[in-house]
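Margin note from the TA: students keep mixing up input and output lines. Inputs are the sequences; the output is the structure of the whole complex. Example:
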Amino acid sequence: MSHLLKNFYIFTGKGGVGKTTAALLFAQYLHEQKNDVLYVSLSQQKLGEASAQKPAQNALSVPQLFLELEDCAQGYIQKKLGSKTIAQWVVKSAYFRALVNMLPGFGYLISMGKMLEIIHESQDKKILILDAPASGHALTMLEATKNFREIFQSGLVFEDTNKMIKKLYDPNHTCVRIISLPTELSLQEAIELKESIQTLAPIPCKVFLNQLLSIWAEKIQDLPAAILEKVKLEESVRQQFSGHIDGSFPLVLEHKLEDQFQSLKPFMEQLI
Amino acid sequence: MKKLLPKKFEIFFGTGGVGKTTLATARAVDLALQGKKVLLMTIDPSKRLKDILGLRDEDSGILCTINSLQGIGTFPQPMKALLMNPQKTIARMGEMAQVSELKSNRIVEILTKPYGGMNEILALIELKMRIDEESFDCVILDTPPGSHFLDFLDAIEKIKQFFDHRFVEIFTSLGKKTSEGQSKGMISGFMDKVVEFGVNKLLHYLEKVTGDSFVEDFLKALEVIYRSRASFLKGIEMEQVLSRESEATWFLVTSVEQGKMTEAQDIQKSASQKHHRRMNLLLNKTLAHHLSDWQATGEGARLKEFFISKESAINKSQSFEDVFDFPEVLASSPLDHVKELSIHWRKYAN
């Protein structure tokens, strides 16, 4: 494992910016370089609902894990109370569901704990690539540990939360990758998110532009005015915010992930 | 061309980054230019959009009056705009119910954070309070961005689930006899109900894991929310109004660039099954008509196909009440976006 690599990569960005693709392809890239990698995506963090967001089947060889909140919660309670029956009952009860569904971050706290545990159990050998929720929620997710430490003040969760914070806010352990479209609005929001995260904790955070059109402008001579205009806007955004952009990826036209991987492979190094 | 029938309430919802707030603002601007008295309620717009509307963060929770927009025009009747602030809504609710602990409870405080679990219901309550105070011809509600499109529709479900359906019944029937609402007896009666429903057993287990101060805070939160139930009932009342087809139009907003077409269709399906609600789709940032004249070859043809195939799928879909296209605005200033999109709204209204 390269000394530059971290244990926990959190990918985030607004819906539809290509965050899942970037996270999956980065995981595949590290996997091909013989790292012990696990790609993780989360359920909707709501209990009692079928999760509609299971990632699509793909032909990538990197190990992929879909974390269900209910399983994480039950596993945790079971561990703490030492009874599967009670844990099952608690998780299924209407009040517990309501509690988790109402309190933002409680579900994240539980699943975050599970992920950090996976890393810990591998003696910090494993690299986890998390496909995190859309941007505002990613902040809720990172804040969750802090908020709940304040709330709990004592008890088993409190102690575990303290342990989590140590790892989660350790700049050598965790980092955030924010994916943005090359538009002013999208990028501005990415930068605002980065600032909010860094106010919270010294987590290394990088912003990447995705789906750049400019490479197509070089290749195709007769682009119509509308696309040329888009390219122009893209260029001006890149100039205006140059100090805030840590890297970029071209727009690829392939439909299948494994084909996209071949096109984007040369760009993956920058995510490390 | 499709025609849009005017209704009193228009609700915009969808995930972040699709241009939902800009489209809602453009709609409000167009209606205000037509002489309607408009209320625009929004949450978390981008900084530059706030600048256009002259909304400052420190004004959040306060109704602002907009007489004109530079470069767009003067409104015959001033438009009112409100930057929603869940914390201020909760504070107002606490004042109305004379429950000062409502805003200071730590659990409630977390619930009302941005992306908190109560933002949707608080938006409905805020809306109800505003329209009770002042009458409007049109209300444009830009809902908080959900992790999922359905978060907003689920808001009422969530609050009901929070109190359990049996609770809501009690909640509702007690709500009718509001005057005695804050008597001590009722609160202890409430705690009896908590115990009666087997919650204490659950809390006992929770206490083992989370520590007792959390459980104490949680019960306290339940209690203060319960004591402020008149306001929560207003939210439920509001939701009923919005679910009447004669009163409200629902717009699900998505954008071509987000490539979320299948998701949009799933939402429609789920919304009509679960909530028996048909909705319109606003398809933002369409490019196809810009590209139709392009005689692309080679790599160009691949690129053209890439853009066009994205939006053709949704236009063929029959599941929505109607689909309204909004072409991508090729400008960087948000004012230009609002201006151009409001012109498009006008086309659909005529």
